[in-house]
Structures are given as structure tokens and as C-alpha cells.
């Protein structure tokens, strides 16, 4: 397979947004209602449910996305109550380059392929 055709191979990937811990508390008297916006290459947007008043949310929500070797999966954490005000609800972000953790050309056998932890944030993924 040529390099150009290899970079165009797409696979279904199950991404589980598991949890976060010790999120940033932006206000003195209230806790955030965090949720995650998951995107692949700026598209295929998926959103978790917002959890009420917590700095350590546990979502455990799985999304199926299509990825290429060049894909970047972005998970942004926001506070739902502040989300509508521009820039006010942002709590954090992680970016994962798929090719650093998964060979998209060969796929996988359905087992856990990688787990990433950044800023006390966990995502799991496996290839179908």
C-alpha cells in the first residue's frame, strides 16, 4: 500500500470518555457542571451528558468515530452553566494523535488499544 493510500485508510474506533479528576474550580462558591465535547479532525462532534456540581466527573460514555492515521481526537471539557458565555466555560482540553497509539491500517482485535491520561482525564479506545 502506498503512503498516500495508507493515509486515507479509515477505521471505526470506539472511544470511551471515562472520567476526569480535580477539574479546575473557576468560581469560589459553586462547582462546575462538566461535560465533554469530543471531535475528530474538527468534525464528527459527540457530546457527553453534563454532570451536576462536581470536580471529578465519571461519564463512561462510548462513541463510535471514523479515524485515519492522520486523525487527531480532541476532548474539550466545559462547564455547562458557563458554556454559552464566550470563553467562560472552558475547563481543559486534550489532543490525541491517533497514529501515535494505533496502527489504523492493521486495525485491532477489539481489545483495549490505548488509554490516555492528561490533566487527570481518561479516554479509552479500541478499533473494530
List the SSEs and their pairings.
Elements: H1 3-7, E1 11-20, E2 34-40, E3 43-47, E4 58-67, E5 72-79, E6 90-97, E7 114-118, E8 121-127
Antiparallel strand pairs: 1-4, 1-8, 2-3, 2-5, 5-6, 7-8
Plain-language structure description:
A hairpin with a 2-residue loop joins strand 2 (34-40) and strand 3 (43-47). The relative contact order is 0.27. The strands form two sheets. A four-stranded antiparallel sheet has the order 4-1-8-7, with no helix packed on it. The chain is mainly beta and 128 residues long. The chain is built from one helix and eight strands, in the order H-E-E-E-E-E-E-E-E. Residues 109-113 have low confidence and may be disordered. It has one helix at 3-7; strands at residues 11-20, 34-40, 43-47, 58-67, 72-79, 90-97, 114-118, 121-127.
Mean pLDDT: 80
Helix- and strand-based class? Answer: mainly beta
Helix content: under 10%
State Rg: 16 Å
Name the poorly predicted regions: 109-113
Please provide a brief summary of the model.
This protein has 128 residues and is mainly beta. The protein is 4% helix and 47% strand. It has a four-stranded antiparallel β-sheet, with no helix packed on it. It has a four-stranded antiparallel β-sheet with strand order 3-2-5-6, with no helix packed on it.
Keywords for this structure?
elongated, mainly beta, four-stranded antiparallel sheet, 1 helix, 128 residues
Amino acid at each position: 500500500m502506498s503512503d498516500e493510500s495508507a493515509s486515507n485508510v479509515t477505521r471505526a474506533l470506539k472511544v470511551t470518555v471515562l472520567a476526569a479528576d480535580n477539574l479546575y474550580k473557576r468560581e469560589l462558591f459553586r462547582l462546575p457542571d462538566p461535560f465533554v465535547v469530543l471531535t475528530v479532525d474538527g468534525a464528527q462532534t459527540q457530546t457527553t451528558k453534563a454532570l451536576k456540581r462536581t470536580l471529578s466527573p465519571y461519564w463512561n460514555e462510548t462513541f463510535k468515530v471514523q479515524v485515519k492515521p492522520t486523525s487527531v481526537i480532541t476532548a474539550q471539557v466545559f462547564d455547562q452553566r458557563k458554556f454559552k458565555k464566550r470563553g467562560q466555560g472552558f475547563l481543559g482540553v486534550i489532543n490525541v494523535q491517533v497514529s501515535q497509539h494505533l496502527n489504523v491500517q492493521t486495525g485491532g482485535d477489539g481489545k483495549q488499544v490505548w488509554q490516555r491520561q492528561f490533566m487527570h482525564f481518561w479516554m479509552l479506545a479500541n478499533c473494530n
